[in-house]
Amino acid sequence: MEFTFPAIGLIHSCFREKFGIPRQPGLAPLARGRLELLPPYNDPQALEGLDQASHIWVQFVFHGNRRLEWKPRVKAPRLGGNKTLGVFATRSPVRPAPIGLSVVKLESITRDGDRLFLELSGVDMLDGTPVLDIKPYVPYVDSVPQASNRFAEEPPAHIQVSFSQEAEAQLEARQQPQLRDLIVQILQQDPRPSYQTPEPERVYGMKLGEDNLRWRYRPLAEGGWRIEVVELEAC
């Protein structure tokens, strides 16, 4: 049985490539995005009452997933990236129907001529992501305090993030007060695949908004690693 669904909107986000996107929504609260409703769904009547909700569910397509064949087991980051788990026990984008579901904060609803936008924060979606549906978050049913998941009981530990002098100077020149905090929120999740041993001389990078963000891993005296942001260069 197959179904065809229309895309009701597109995501415009600060994440221009898959690498570096937080693995769950809300982990980087400063990560902003705009959900643009597409015709004929850009009718203000369709959003009447949505401004009463602080958060919304966004159902979307993992359009950056190039793997067409599904597998019953997938590599899960929680297991280090080399061990597998049943696909339906994970939130992997590699699934029979590549559909994602994220709860994000609804900051406001804005208009620009005929264009209608939902301003979002805490996003974990790639720029250009097609959106299938929007639903309001309803706390009394959507929040389950007694819920458990023994596979992921605690959030991953944060890694220390510091900035080189060059990166600090580049941040100061940007005159964007929240940019530094956004970078910390993203990198403290440690985007590196956990099965990959850091190489101090290797430079990692991602596109963040209009910038190329680059960093290295530095060993800590007590063991483990920290991240040093080495450059923030305009694309």
Keyphrases for this structure?
34% strand; 12 strands; 235 residues; 4-stranded mixed beta sheet; 6-stranded antiparallel β-barrel; 10% helix; globular; mainly beta
Written account of the structure:
A hairpin with a 2-residue loop joins strand 6 (99-112) and strand 7 (115-121). 10% of the residues lie in helices and 34% in strands. The chain has 235 residues and is mainly β. The longest helix is centred in the C-terminal third of the chain and has 10 residues, at 165-174. 22% of the residues are buried. The strands form 3 sheets. A 6-stranded antiparallel beta barrel has the order 1-2-7-6-3-8. A 4-stranded mixed sheet has the order 9-12-11-10. A two-stranded antiparallel sheet has the order 4-5.
